[in-house]
Specification:
By secondary structure, the protein is α/β, with parallel strands linked by helices. It has 15 helices and 13 strands.
Length: 393
């Protein structure tokens, strides 16, 4: 008897059954369809410094095109260690405590994978970046959602304390915060330090917007606080800092014992990162001005955008950092006043020609506060074009 071969793809259980197409992909596609100004997805529409491209080109032409060391090219790790020490007062050993990663997203999942597993719990503070929860779910650990205070998006340490259990393995912290633009204060950091001091809980600190803090504030890195630094994986991103999100180069700074575990996973999920870009970035970092001046650069864009929105019925929320501006829509006059955030963003894209992201997309349960998020990491002309359309509201 001949058995006919099958061409049917075998069925298997999904590791992420609740994950579908992200809101960012949906809104960007809708923006393209309706020729809308896309203030949804968080990346610049302008180029980087030509000197950075030249530095990468020089590295390529100098033959820096083969595998670098697994933890990253030594000149870049040295440059990172020097930058952290200069800004935050803590010296990380470049050989044993700095790892170059394929962007911050890879850094975060690697940190989660190396420290959490079945039976553990990992705390996220909602609203949060959309990779955090799937990262935790892939480890088999339980996600524990703690809401930031609605309206202000400040941490509620009473709720964080109540969420801590003997099974808590880590907490994910993001400051400056995407999507709200909130920046943690020194007092916030000290309270977290006091809360975690008697525990073995690790911190995965997403600090990719570290150089975008406004109005005289300073970024409070975990590296500034010895008790927190001792338990933290600190994540940052050259893509955000140097306007090259497509390069996907970031890093993690952590104590040697944590770094050793991090690298066990890193070597098998990415191994290492683009060689000429590492050497180019290392050379470019000799001049600190591009990241030291970044807050002023983005503050001007924030102020331009906020001034335009202030002439509409959008209700502006504070923007202390990042390149995101949140706005409440509850006072707007639209054809259907009871539109959800998600429906409003679709209407705004189709009818007004500006794309934004609903804040509910950053919550696991879809918490609708009538707040949406705009990205102002755009050319001034792009922002003015968006504001001209939004003026109709």
């Amino acid at each position: 008897m001949t058995i006919a071969p099958t061409t049917r793809t075998p069925a298997f259980p999904s590791r992420l059954p609740n994950v579908g197409t992200t809101i960012f992909t949906v809104m960007s596609a809708l923006a393209a369809e309706h020729q809308a100004v896309n203030l949804g997805q968080g990346f610049p529409d302008f180029g980087c410094d030509p000197r950075l491209v030249d530095a990468v080109d020089t590295a390529m032409r100098a033959g820096q095109n083969q595998y670098p060391p697994m933890p990253g090219a030594a000149p870049l790790r040295e440059a990172i260690a020097s930058k952290i020490e200069a800004l935050y007062g803590r010296r990380y050993d470049a050989a044993s405590e700095i790892t170059v990663t394929a962007g911050a997203t890879q850094a975060i999942i690697t940190a989660v994978l190396c420290c959490a597993g079945p039976g553990d719990e990992v705390i996220v503070l909602e609203p949060c970046y959309d990779s955090y929860v799937p990262n935790i779910e892939l480890t088999g650990a339980a996600v524990v959602r703690v809401p930031l205070t609605p309206g202000t998006f400040r941490p509620d340490f009473g709720k964080i304390a109540a969420a801590l259990t003997p099974r808590t393995r880590a907490i994910l912290v993001n400051t400056p915060h995407n999507p709200s633009g909130t920046v943690w204060s020194p007092e916030d950091m000290r309270r977290l330090d006091e809360l975690l001091a008697p525990t073995g809980v690790l911190v995965i600190s997403d600090e990719v917007y570290e150089h975008m803090v406004y109005d005289g504030q300073q970024h409070q890195s975990m590296a500034r606080f010895p008790g927190l630094a001792a338990r933290s994986f600190i994540v940052s991103s050259f893509g955000k800092t140097y306007h090259v999100t497509g390069w996907k180069v970031g890093y993690v700074a952590a104590p040697a014992a944590l770094t050793a575990e991090f690298r066990k996973v890193h070597q098998f999920n990415v191994f290492t990162v683009n060689t000429p870009m590492q050497h180019g970035i290392a050379a470019y970092m000799a001049d600190p001005a591009p990241y030291l001046d970044l807050s002023a650069f983005y503050a001007a864009k924030r102020d331009l955008f906020r001034a335009g929105l202030a002439r509409t019925k959008f209700r502006l929320l504070p923007c202390e950092g990042t390149y995101f501006q949140c706005a409440a829509i509850d006072e707007l006059s639209v054809p259907e006043r009871d539109l959800s955030e998600a429906d409003f963003c679709q209407w705004l894209t189709r009818e007004i020609g500006v794309a934004a992201i609903p804040l509910s997309a950053f919550y696991g349960g879809g918490f609708d506060q009538k707040v949406i998020r705009f990205c102002f990491a755009k050319k001034d002309d792009t922002l003015r074009a968006a504001l001209e359309r939004l003026a109709r509201l």
